[in-house]
Write a structure and sequence with these properties.
Strand content of chain A: 5-15%
Number of strands of chain A: 7
Shape of chain A: elongated
Oligomer: homodimer
Order of helices and strands of chain A: HHHEEHEHEHEHEHE
Distance between the termini of chain A: 59 Å
Number of helices of chain A: 8
Largest interface: A-B, 52 and 52 residues
Chain lengths: ~190, ~190
């Protein structure tokens, strides 16, 4: 009834996390009312980001440059490598400004149920990075229980590099991205041997 | 920390209704992960809709053609004119398929508090349409209490065209867009003289 352009827009907006069909319609209408102030800038920002942003070949972070700005930053400690599930978790760590090492983004966690095996994750590249010799400690910041952490401990055992995990305080099954910075800082400081 | 493209995208997404800073970040990340399947199509859909969609010069509906497809549809009854606050309310009426007349979108409701006077709304064009002579009944489907409805009754008194309002069933102060179609259909059928 609304014409194909509006229906297509509502359909795509409804695929964003947290938006259902009704909220997608509200968002579409809001955008159509703010065509110049919001709709056109958002379209351009999406195209810009889609064109400019690429995964970092080293750590898996998303950035306009490869290696990403974190991998390229000479002030960061090469000896500390924090393994996260997702770029959103990397963002959460960075928001807290509590960590000045490097990251490695796995791209998920191991899950037999979802058919996610080691080949689906950036684990081979992690093993290579750690084998490179400059890493003193690997901090496993995944929060999926212990499956992924135990698997990483096995795969990295030959390197003799100590693995640690975030301290208790991180809720089991929760998402790093939703934690407040204080809890995250406490958990990082109290990390323990794996 | 994320580069200007991502920050700009998060900032614009955070201005959409219902999205705060955290959900804007989640949406941005989701889009960056689904660059080809969702991000680029959404950018194009926003640009297409922004270019193609214009307000109808007759009723204020949003469409790709002017007069809009509702105003241009010869099967609709010119004698029934439904006055709504917003295009979202017109969409709600159309979803219910309960009304086969024409619409007039005011673009808001009168509010001394918000400085919205009659000049800010599409009221002069409504008076002209009703004065045109083909309208038999004006259904005032605004839900802001009675301020706007009473003002419209005054302005349209000379036309002698009867005004009706939606029956009780519409929650006072609620939004038409959030009603289920059944409630809306009941309210339309039970409309009363203003």
């Amino acid at each position: 009834m609304n014409g194909p352009q509006i229906e297509r827009l509502i359909q795509l907006l409804g695929r964003l996390p947290g938006l259902g069909p009704r909220s997608a319609r509200r968002v579409a209408l809001h955008l159509l009312k703010k065509r110049e102030a919001l709709m056109q800038p958002l379209s351009a920002a999406l195209a810009d980001a889609a064109n400019a942003i690429r995964p970092c070949g080293s750590c898996g972070n998303l950035d306009t440059i490869d290696p990403c700005s974190i991998c390229a930053d000479p002030r960061r400690d090469n000896g500390l490598l924090c393994v996260v599930e997702d770029v959103g978790d990397l963002w959460a760590m960075e928001r807290g400004r509590i960590f000045a090492g490097r990251y490695h983004v796995l791209g998920g966690t191991l899950s037999a149920l979802d058919g996610v095996g080691p080949e689906e994750l950036n684990i081979a590249s992690l093993v290579r990075r750690v084998a490179g010799g400059s890493v003193r400690e690997v901090i496993v910041a995944t929060v999926d229980g212990q499956t992924t952490a135990h698997y990483l401990a096995e795969r990295l055992a030959d390197s003799k590099v100590p693995l640690t995990r975030l301290a208790h305080g991180v809720p089991v099954g929760g998402e790093l991205d939703w934690l407040d910075d204080g809890t995250l800082a406490t958990a990082l400081k109290a990390r323990r041997a794996l």
